[in-house]
Amino acid sequence: MYEQVVVSADWLAGRLDEVRVIDVRDAWEFDGIGHVPGAANVPFAAFRSEAGDEGMLPGRETWEALLSNAGVGPDDDVVAYDDTHGVFAARFLVTAELYGHPPERLHLLDGDFSAWNREHETTSESSPPPETDYAVRDPERSPLVDYETVLDALDDADTVVVDTRDPGEYAEGHLPGAVNLDWRELVDDETRGLKPESERSDILADVGVTPDTRVILYCNTARRISHTYVVLRSLGYENVGFYEGSLTEWTERGGPVETA
């Protein structure tokens, strides 16, 4: 069992025969640009749906079909990657956790596809994945929080509500009292991977997010908070709420909004 949340390209290279690798880029990138050998392609658009379950979750049957077709078993170690600093891959991993895949078996490739491409072999050939019959399970513990929980948290001095959108979006309107932490602040633009752990911890502490605080994350459609959620998991944070409905549901339900 591997409990590292974020893994390096070298880590993955030594375990290609032991893990299932998921590439969430578009099919033309997977085939035309190349991919990690043995990876299965599950494009981001395939697991996002406004007609599925809560928020943008795709629905249980859709998820089961996608993972079965990708050859993922219910207890496989899964490594996901994209070419956008990991934000789309993180969304895949959070979706897997919410549908009951063991969280300790879910891993994000640090530095996205470019980290692999710089040092390791890629391929444009695809081999059929093993046949699986993936079944969704209820997670032992779900990070999901609903509208009412978030509304109550606005008046809770022991909870930090974090808006992971960019400062311009935050200024236009955000949940009252929320702090702004653009998810990209935790990423090193040069390496495309996460900033060093100590630097990440300092950035989080600057907005009041520390391991002993209760944290609730939101953005617009729960994509960007997926990346921040994975980062917090990698740092050992345990009390993190994931508002799947995010600002889309919040405004639809008439939740209070303030401007900067």
TrEMBL record:
Keywords in alphabetical order: Repeat, Transferase
Alphabetical list of SMART domains matching this protein: RHOD
Enzyme class name: transferase
EC number: 2.8.1.-
GO molecular function: transferase activity
Cited PROSITE patterns: RHODANESE_1, RHODANESE_3
Domain Rhodanese span(s) in chain numbering: 15-125, 155-259
PANTHER family the UniProt entry points to: THIOSULFATE SULFURTRANSFERASE
Stated name of the protein: Sulfurtransferase
Organism, scientific name: Halobellus rarus
Upper classification of the organism: Archaea, Methanobacteriati, Methanobacteriota, Stenosarchaea group, Halobacteria
